[in-house]
């Protein structure tokens, strides 16, 4: 039960690439937030996801890899199937389990067409030669083998499904929040096995970096955090510029920056969905 079980070629849909959609989903996913270059490298272009910046987690420090299309150190030699298996199954090109500091547990819910669009967008970026750095974690081989057991109890490959009782906008917001936005990775508490407790989805919990807490996204109006969905839209678009507390700094700073770049219809959809969480 611990061996990786990658998808086969039959899992790839016939799909015409939509690079603009890929860029949009890349932005919603905040890929640059984790895959930015090491800040110690003063010559690196901070706008490109060449990886290397340290990502602290409770089990050690990870250095997210290079997502530019460099053939030697990035995604240049990765196939579409390699990319889909990484994002939707947490399986590396070498066939090993990826540790879920990489949020494939949310990306698994995405439409594979959208995953392929992200890949096609990444292939338009300037290639950067940036060697990937191994994670600073104890016994990485045994940990990755153990991830197979963790996946057995904590990983679902179920795709997101629309709610026919809700509006098209609400469903769009639900998809963006639960799939590419992977908001539940931080805002949903976890059990003793570090599995998301989806019975308490978006109820908040300990910060994944081990310092402080992540707030609940439920009852945002009832708790008087925001007046209504329109108020939440303004908060996501303008953050502390318009006086919305704790949105443009700290852990949410980069997230709010990404949200501010989205089409207004998508920000409204996200707000509509979040406000509905009681």
Report on the structure:
The chain is mostly helical and 278 residues long. It folds into 2 domains: 10-154; 168-275, no CATH class. Helix content is 36%, strand content 4%. The protein contains 11 helices and 4 strands; from the N terminus they run H-H-E-E-H-H-H-H-H-H-E-E-H-H-H. The protein has helices spanning 19-29, 31-35, 80-89, 104-107, 112-122, 140-154, 168-178, 184-187, 229-238, 253-259, 264-275; strands at residues 55-57, 60-62, 205-206, 213-214. The strands form 2 sheets. A two-stranded antiparallel sheet has the order 1-2. A two-stranded antiparallel ribbon has the order 3-4. The longest helix is centred in the middle third of the chain and has 15 residues, at 140-154. The chain is globular. The protein starts with 18 loop residues before the first helix and ends with a helix. The mean pLDDT is 92.
Strand content: under 5%
Low-pLDDT sequence parts: none
Number of helices: 11
How far apart lie the N and C ends?
37 Å
Topology as a string of helices (H) and strands (E) = HHEEHHHHHHEEHHH
Number of strands: 4
- Largest beta sheet: what is the strand line-up? 1-2
- The total domain count is 2
Q: Fraction of residues in helices?
A: 25-40%
Major β-sheet profile: 2 strands, antiparallel
Overall outline: globular
Task: Quickly give the structural class.
Answer: mainly alpha
Mean pLDDT: 92
Radius of gyration from the alpha-carbon trace, in angstroms: 18 Å
């Amino acid at each position: 039960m611990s061996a990786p079980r990658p998808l086969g070629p039959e899992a790839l849909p016939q799909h015409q690439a939509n690079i603009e959609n890929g860029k949009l989903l890349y932005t919603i996913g905040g890929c640059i937030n984790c895959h930015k270059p090491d800040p110690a490298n003063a010559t690196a272009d901070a706008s490109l996801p060449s990886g290397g910046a340290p990502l602290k987690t409770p089990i050690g420090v990870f250095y997210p890899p290079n997502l530019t299309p460099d053939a030697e150190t990035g995604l240049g030699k990765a196939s579409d199937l390699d990319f889909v298996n990484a994002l939707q199954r947490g399986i590396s090109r070498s066939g090993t389990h990826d540790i879920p500091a990489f949020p494939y547990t949310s990306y698994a819910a995405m439409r594979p067409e959208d995953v392929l669009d992200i890949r096609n967008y990444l292939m338009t970026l300037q290639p950067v030669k940036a060697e990937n750095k191994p994670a600073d974690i104890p016994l990485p081989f045994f940990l990755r083998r153990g991830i197979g057991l963790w996946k057995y109890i904590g990983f679902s490959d179920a795709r997101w499904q629309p709610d026919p009782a809700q509006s098209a906008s609400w469903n769009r917001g639900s998809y963006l929040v639960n799939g590419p936005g992977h908001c539940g990775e931080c805002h949903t508490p976890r059990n003793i096995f570090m599995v998301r407790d989806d019975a308490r989805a978006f109820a908040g919990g300990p910060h994944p970096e081990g310092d402080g807490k992540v707030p609940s996204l439920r009852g945002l109006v009832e708790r008087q955090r925001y007046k209504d969905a329109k108020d939440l839209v303004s908060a996501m678009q303008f953050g502390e510029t318009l006086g919305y507390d704790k949105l443009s700094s700290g852990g949410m700073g980069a997230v709010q920056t990404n949200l501010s770049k989205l089409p207004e219809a998508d920000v409204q959809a996200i707000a509509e969905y979040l406000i509905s969480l009681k």
